[in-house]
Amino acid sequence: SAVRATFHDVVKLNYYCVDSVDPEVQVSVVRTIRDGFVNKDAPPVSTFVVVRRLARPDRLIEVEGVAFLAID
Questions:
Q1: 5-26, pLDDT tens digit by residue?
Q2: What does pLDDT average to over the chain?
Q3: pTM: predicted TM-score of the whole model, two decimal places
Q4: Which of 17, 33, 45, 71 is the 20 to 30 Å CA partner of 62?
Q5: Phi-psi region for residue 37, left (φ > 0), alpha (ψ -120 to 50) or beta?
Q6: HSE-up of residue 56 (Cα within 13 Å, Cβ side)
Q7: Where are the beta strands (DSSP E) in the chain?
């Protein structure tokens, strides 16, 4: 059977942002968008890393999420 996760199952988010944008501004933008999806009372642990470039150079930010699901 299929197992489906929701944003409430996300326990960790990693953000990788290129150094050509202002990280201070981006953290605020990321939090605003994130809060529309996750449990704001218990948000996932987050890491925000500024990098020189991403694997796809046309992108400014990459998001990696880890979800935890208990399967009976």
A1: 888 899 999 999 999 988 888 8
A2: 90
A3: 0.82
A4: 71
A5: alpha
A6: 6
A7: 10-18, 45-51, 61-67
Rounded CA separation 45/50 (Å): 17
Lay out the sheet containing 45-51: strands in order across. Answer: 45-51, 10-18, 61-67
Which of 7, 6, 14, 9 shows the shortest CA–CA distance to 30? 14
Cα–Cα distance list, 33 to 25, 40, 55 (Å): 13, 11, 23
Per the document, the length of the chain is: 72
CA distance 10 to 45: 9
Distance, in Å, from the CA atom of 12 to the CA atom of 43, rounded to the nearest integer, reads: 9
Residue type, 24: E
Residue 11: count other Cβ atoms within 10 Å of its Cβ. 14
What's the pLDDT at 3? 74
